[in-house]
Amino acid sequence: MTYDFLPSVAAPLARLIEEFHKLPGIGPKTAQRLAYYLIRMPAEEAHSLAEAILAVKERITFCTVCQNITESSPCPLCSSQSRDRSRLCVVEEPLDVLSLERTRVYKGLYHVLHGVISPASGIGPENLKIREMLERLKGNEVEEVILATNPSLEGESTAMYIHRLLLPLVPRITRLARGLPVGGDLEYADEVTLSRALEGRQEM
Hints:
Elements: H1 11-21, H2 28-40, H3 43-59, E1 61-62, E2 69-70, H4 76-79, E3 84-91, H5 94-103, E4 108-112, H6 130-137, E5 144-147, H7 153-166, E6 172-175, H8 191-199, E7 202-203
Parallel strand pairs: 3-4, 3-5, 5-6
Antiparallel strand pairs: 1-2, 6-7
Helix pairs in contact: 1-2, 5-8
């Protein structure tokens, strides 16, 4: 996407503004501010930022077990012998794992779906990491699956879809308690709310 003001600025700056604008939640004005901030940033800081971005793309991968982002596979959570392997918490995104870990209440394992079922956005079950989750549960020691998708329309629909698939595979399926606000995201929930939601999870 190009803007009317871009022809009046140097080509490298115009490209940087356009690249920033591709990021989620970054509008044209914010893209401009970020680009001009980088111009004023000391060279060593700019290089450090560029190296951090490259390192993420070159070294970060998905855990072959839980599908969370990691530098090594299996990830530290899946490799830990101190985790409760009888419980599996299913979340939408890697950021949700961080949010739940901050509560220090849940000690089980995770599975990251990388999204939710959303026909309006062209996202179906085949686009999520559901097949990997089902393969993981076959012949596994998991006794409870906690469905921790967000309390949104898409999150609820995804939870119900997965619930039907899990019924013949695990003895207990629970959903986070409704202490979470409807339409909210786990990423923005505070630790107390998440802790209560975990402790008050309900059978599905």
